[in-house]
Design a protein that fits this description.
With 338 residues, the chain is of the alpha/beta class. The chain has two domains: 199 residues, Rossmann fold (3-Layer(aba) Sandwich); 108 residues, Roll (Methionyl-tRNA Fmet Formyltransferase, Chain A, domain 2). 30% of the residues lie in helices and 26% in strands. β14 and β15 form a beta hairpin. The longest helix is centred in the middle third of the chain and has 24 residues. The radius of gyration is 25 Å and the shape is globular. It starts with a strand and ends with a helix.
Amino acid sequence: MRVAAFGRTQWLYASIRAAAARGHQIVLIGTCPAAPEYQVTEEDFARLAQDLGCGYFCDTNLNRPEYIRMVQDSKAEIAISVNWLTLIDQRMLDQFEHGMINAHAGDLPRFRGNAVPNWAILVGEKKVVLSLHQMAAELDAGPILLQRNFPLTRDTYIQDVYRFLEQNIPEMFLEVLEGLANSSIIPRRQPSDPSVSLRCFPRLQRDGLIDWTLPAEEIARLVRASSRPFAGAYSFLSSEKIIVWQARPDKLPYRHLGVPGQVVQIRHKTGEVLVLTGDGVLAIEQAETREEGCRPAAEIVRSARVRFGMDITGELTVLSTRVKELEEKIRRLTKGRP
């Protein structure tokens, strides 16, 4: 088949190469600027297009008339897509005999939108479902073609999900390309009832800030959903930012009273640091600071007489004192000047 490819991520890049190796003709590649967590950039896609001898562009708006003309000139029969940044108009979707096929890391029709596997971990889902579907003008609403499940446990990190996506997206695109060509795959319509869907919105780096008043289970989910390749869940310790890369819920063998964020135990043998939460205890296994780098938490937190979390009142007091000192220094330096 004559295939166009639109989007970004290493999974689209691998899918293009896999389709070309299977004998499909790649006739056009369009990409967007890469996100920090991606392993390939727009420069990689440009080189791939050059190697394959096909057209190429980088933009965030696929609906421009010049791109529709490029699609028409390419005579593409089908398009594959992963994580295109903006909604695609029906006019562009109508250019392909077999439609535009999107790889969506969510259980359609339940999970639509952005950062879906991260949200699935955060809300305690039992699985992530990778769905390949024909795109429609409405977000993630087109007919479903193929789905595969990845189980989520209390030990699953977002990087584990990404490995699943890396392995399965190219394979599933090939299966769909061949299934649509020989009619062995029949598109399955999604229900139109909006109440069956959950719209997921993007997550930002600052969303990784740990609220120690939450239960340990919820904080552990935040750590697992924010871990590599993302920026990580984080807190502060003596005003220094500390990233928590690995953590799990734990228990203390005695009744206790304390303020959430309080360090209550340092396990030097395992490298863990136990911290009180709003409900239960979090065992921090691996952490990172600018000074110490990434290492077992017990090699960073060396005292149980400390508490995680930004001391806003204390920091404001320090800043206020420094401002007054600077104002006084400026007053002395400028005293007597006209």
